[in-house]
Amino acid sequence: MALAIGPPSSARLSHIWLIVIAMVIGVVIAVPVARLVKMTAMPQLVAIFNGVGGGAAALVSITEFIGTDTKQVATYRS
Fold first, then answer.
1. Is the dihedral of CA 50, 51, 56, 57 positive or negative?
2. Is the pTM of this model over 0.85?
3. Cβ(61)–Cβ(40) under 8 Å?
4. Taking phi first (over 0 means left), then psi (-120 to 50 degrees means alpha), and beta for anything else, what does residue 68 get?
5. Closest CA to 26 of 64, 52, 45, 6
6. How far is CA 19 from the centre of its chain?
7. Segment 44-67 mean pLDDT
8. CA angle (13 as vertex; 12, 16 as ends), nearest 5
9. What span, in angstroms and rounded, lies between the C-alpha atoms of 27 and 38?
10. Does residue 27 have a pLDDT over 60?
11. Alpha helices for 37-78 (secondary structure H)
């Protein structure tokens, strides 16, 4: 996530603390779970991690859809 924000600028770095908090929360939750799971439960763990990633992608897309301010219709240019 830190690499995703690109080169530093004041607009991008204004919410860097949210990225850091998200990374810390992810590490605190995922590392103990991944280390304590039994090998026979590994497929279920992978499925849960994939589901969480899909949920995060859905939340980002919903947020971007709601936050879109444009009234223009997309056009195809050849």
1. positive
2. no
3. no
4. beta
5. 52
6. 9
7. 88
8. 115
9. 19
10. yes
11. 42-67
